[in-house]
Amino acid sequence: MNKPLAVVPIPALSDNYIWLLSDGRTAACVDPGEAAPVLDFLNAHGLALAQIWITHHHGDHTGGVAELKRRFPKCAVYGGGDVPAADMAAGEGGIIRFAGRTARVWHIPGHTAGHLAYLLEDGGRTHVFCGDTLFSAGCGRVFTGTMEQLAASCRRLAALPDDTLLYPAHEYTAANLAFAECVEPGNPDIRAARQQAAHPPTLPVTLVHEKRINPFLRTAHPAVACRAAEAAGRPLPDETAVFAALREWKNRF
């Protein structure tokens, strides 16, 4: 059996993480918003960059691609049709092979219409690079997608095995937990997570942990639905409406 890949968060810009995967010789990185920290890491560890995986087209996820490609011309850049820098098309049902492992591609629209996730199977569990769709204790804003799409994408991620590891692209955990505690002030798991969030990085996180603390994955819980309806000032007929009300509330929070 292969030794599990090393997966390292490289801080970038103000609060981004560029996730770097390595087998000790070659590397892949996810959403390089800038090139310099990636190049520094590669040089320090003697690694060659073989692949770049892009979840969506926003500049804080793609800003470093051109320079990395210049330094590593043979590097394959995977992304959807909304990513001009991509030279390898990626989309729902696609398969990427890296270092003897397989990553599946999911289309998880909402934050953007073309947003992708990369699901890597390694070490007996699933590792999900979910960009700006799902954060620890939160979810992304809606830009070019729809609220219904974002809710459906989060439900799809939530259906993965509980031991799945999630790798969001931003360190938003502390701020998200403040909102989560406002939604569920009596939730002891949120209270404990807030103490731990004082010492980043807080990522990756397990899906089962998120199911305990993330209001956007707890829309079926009566206490969460009730608080969302209070904040919205209207009855909420289903879980998608609860999700949308929570996202609108978070936008104002």
UniProtKB/TrEMBL annotation:
Zn(2+) 2 binds at D60, H61, D132, H170. GO terms for biological process: methylglyoxal catabolic process to D-lactate via S-lactoyl-glutathione. Residues 15-170 form the Metallo-beta-lactamase domain. It is an enzyme of class 3 (hydrolase). The lineage of its organism: Bacteria, Pseudomonadati, Pseudomonadota, Betaproteobacteria, Neisseriales. Gene3D superfamilies: Ribonuclease Z/Hydroxyacylglutathione hydrolase-like. It holds the Pfam family Lactamase_B. SMART domains: Lactamase_B (SM00849). It comes from Neisseria bacilliformis ATCC BAA-1200. It comes from the Bacteria. This is Hydroxyacylglutathione hydrolase. Belongs to the metallo-beta-lactamase superfamily. Glyoxalase II family. InterPro entries: Clx_II_MBL, Glyoxalase_II_hydrolase, HAGH_C, Hydroxyacylglutathione_Hdrlase, Metallo-B-lactamas, RibonucZ/Hydroxyglut_hydro. Binds 2 Zn(2+) ions per subunit. Pathway: Secondary metabolite metabolism; methylglyoxal degradation; (R)-lactate from methylglyoxal: step 2/2.
